[in-house]
Design brief:
9-stranded mixed β-sheet; 6-stranded antiparallel β-sheet; alpha+beta
């Protein structure tokens, strides 16, 4: 039942940076400047160490001198003000009932059944997934009958959420590779709402239980299913400390968006008062929180006398809580006093149906626990196909105020661009976002990008009021500890930070710069946590991967359960099915084939992408340059360097469809080009002998 609180690590940037080096993704940076000048650049660096507190993982904040650092308080008054029509919200005050339960709202339940986490530490995943399921039910999102469990309800996989973000992935075409957490037992060792938010923002964690069951945890799960999602997290909101009198805010969340996950210290007494189980203790606060649960309702009149004599709260009122310890005691539910001092980390997850032909441009695939104060930050991407940008996603750090002003700008960059803003401004928008969590800002005017074009998304976070502290831009970082660690991988030309003087710096260049003490203070920085969601312009479905998986044939009585289940689902797909459903069916079937030893990951992985075979540089022709790109990627991989190829580029280069690149792929591309140049009409199957 382990749970761990936010691991924070932040950089406060107070001086100008300097730029040096070369970029490889559409931006040529400024010429190298004097190294002695770079050494005068200084940061006020505050490291967060992790300390063991019994069986709990709690953050310990210290500055460079080892003195304690006080984290900014959550502005709960401002957050609660959103209910009264604060400037950052269109919400108006709603009259809340004294009693409310999602188990029975006008005869309907908006909560899935109680689960049993057993001896695992996956409470955080059960709480987060339970909140997601409740939100899906509350919104009335589509739930096809074939997705339902044997019990006839929606059942998303906690294992999917908890496994992949703790599992290393170094895969060509996945630009979020190298980002993961390490902890004994993977997600069984602990987690929290922030980790759940980052995983789902990366496209991980909303698989169906039937295809990725908890019962298979000891055997592990297939990488084919890492990004298999049946719903998507649109955004999340997290409040770290719930001050007395702010209960109405959480009640409003429950009414509007469903159940809320929360954390608390769980080793007090659960008092059986004869009609219910009641929990309240006074010895421990939020820093001792070790368990996550789901708040599904409330009762303002739940008497303080219902709690254990001698340890009773001063006022009536309690939360109705769904636990993940099975149904033995009161069906798996208990009441928690409004005054419980350890209640913290309250989170809601707003879900949406998966959009057809969606592309997720991202570099952050793990949990980012660092922040940096800067004028702006940017990520630079190259389009793998014609597409329309529809939204931008970014997290708001727990270190920031409750309300943060954002500005988003998108630039089309040319080959001679020197900064992320050195191009044509295609779109800009600004607004105010509320609470910590991962945000999704829809673009009111979709932005069209052509295949092969390079574009930058620039994010600037600022104060809502002049008295607010500067908000932190979330950025990945490598953190090592004897208990757990965060790993990230950043490549040149991907992420940039702007200082107060307006100068831009590639994170890779910044990693090699020293501060005034000669220390490589920024060596552990990673990518900016900033994503772009796009819709491919391609309208025709790509069934190549699914057809390749189905070619292995129908199952028989010797086939594994996953193979049988996935095969039956695949052949039952209707003709008018969406591309993402085809991809999900293929991923599950490939995982079943792998589990039965018929294929080995990553064979057939890239066939779900649209590409011209051999066109590695995405210019719609096959030339000697494509052979060069394939050979370069192969040679880099041979020495442990992950080439920065897009999925469509890897698919185009993988001539034999093995899922890996070899010198033979480059040879076949060169042979194809030579044949065309000689006036012949080459055929890939003939050239490869396949």
């Amino acid at each position: 039942m382990k749970h761990f609180r936010n691991l924070a690590n932040w950089l406060c940037c107070t001086a100008a940076f300097l730029f040096c080096g070369m970029s490889t993704n559409g931006i040529s940076v400024l010429s190298a400047l004097a190294q002695e000048t770079a050494q005068t650049t200084d940061f006020s660096l505050a490291q967060i160490s992790w300390e063991q507190n019994g069986e709990l993982l709690t953050p310990c904040a210290t500055d460079a001198d080892g003195d304690a650092v006080t984290l900014p308080e959550t502005a709960m008054d401002a957050a609660a003000g959103a209910l009264r029509g604060a400037e950052s919200s269109d919400e108006t005050e709603t009259q809340l009932p004294t009693f409310y339960s999602l188990l029975d709202v006008d005869g309907e339940s908006y909560i899935t059944s109680v689960k049993d986490q057993g001896a695992s530490g996956l409470c955080w995943a059960y709480a987060a997934i339970g909140a997601c399921e409740s939100n899906i039910l509350t919104q009335g999102l589509t739930i096809p009958e074939e997705w339902l469990s044997d019990e006839g309800e929606l059942d998303l996989s906690e294992a999917s959420l908890a496994w992949y973000i703790y599992t290393e992935r170094m895969q060509l075409g996945d630009l979020a590779s190298g980002d993961y957490l390490t902890l004994d037992g993977k997600g069984v060792g602990g987690g929290n709402a922030t980790i759940a938010s980052f995983a789902m923002a990366a496209g991980i964690g909303t698989q169906l239980e039937q295809y990725l069951p908890m019962s298979d945890w000891d055997e592990g799960y297939s990488e084919y299913q890492r990004y298999t999602s049946y719903y998507e997290m649109e955004s999340s909101d997290i409040i770290w400390e719930l001050e007395e009198g702010a209960e109405d805010l959480i009640k409003q969340w429950i009414v509007e968006t469903g159940a809320v996950s929360a954390s608390y210290y769980s080793s007090g007494t659960y008092y059986d008062n004869g009609t219910s189980s009641a929990y309240y203790q006074t010895r421990y606060g939020s820093n001792n929180a070790d368990h996550a649960v789901l708040i599904v309702g409330w009762d303002d009149d739940y008497s303080a006398e219902n709690f254990q004599s001698g340890t009773q709260p001063e006022r009536d009122g309690a939360w109705l809580v769904r636990n993940s310890w099975g149904t033995d005691d009161y069906g798996g539910y208990f009441w928690m006093s409004y005054d419980e001092p350890s209640l913290c980390e309250l989170a809601r997850f707003e879900m949406t149906e998966v959009q057809d032909q969606e592309i997720r441009y991202q570099y952050d695939g793990g949990a980012s626990y660092s922040g940096i104060v800067s004028s702006a930050a940017a990520n630079v991407f190259t389009a793998e196909t014609d597409c329309t940008l529809s939204s931008v996603m970014f997290p708001i750090s727990s270190l920031s105020e409750s309300h943060v002003r954002y500005t988003i700008s998108i630039y089309l960059l040319g080959d001679d661009a020197q900064t992320p803003e050195d191009g044509t401004l295609l779109y800009t928008t600004a607004g105010i976002t509320t609470y910590s969590g991962y945000k999704n800002i829809a673009l009111d005017t979709p932005v069209a990008i052509q295949k092969g074009e390079t574009f930058a998304v620039v994010l600037s976070l600022g104060r809502v009021q002049a008295t607010d502290s500067r908000p932190y831009t979330t950025i990945e970082s490598n953190m090592e500890d004897s208990v757990a660690s965060v790993q990230c991988l950043v490549r040149e030309g991907q992420s940039y930070i702007q200082d107060s003087a307006g100068s831009w710096y590639d994170i890779v260049d910044l990693q090699s710069m020293t501060n005034s003490s000669g220390v490589l203070a920024y060596a552990d920085l990673g990518n900016v946590a900033l994503k772009v969601i796009a819709e491919a312009s391609e309208t025709e479905n790509n069934t190549a991967q699914l057809e390749a998986a189905l070619s292995y044939g129908a199952t028989d009585e010797t086939a594994g359960e996953l193979y049988q289940l996935a095969y039956a689902a695949a052949i039952a797909l209707p003709e008018d099915v969406a591309q993402w459903e085809i991809d999900n069916a293929a991923a599950n079937l490939l995982a079943g084939l792998e589990q039965d030893g018929l294929i080995q990951f990553p064979k057939l992985l890239y066939l779900s992408h649209s590409y011209l075979r051999g066109d590695v540089d995405l210019d719609d022709t096959v030339t000697i340059l494509d052979a060069h790109e394939a050979l370069l990627a192969y040679s880099q991989e041979s020495v442990g360097i992950l080439a920065t190829l897009l999925p469509a580029q890897v698919a185009a280069a993988d001539i034999d469809e093995s899922g890996t690149l070899s010198i033979w792929d480059a040879y076949w591309i060169l042979l194809y080009y030579a044949s065309e140049s000689a006036g012949m009409t080459p055929d890939w199957e003939t050239l490869t002998g396949g």
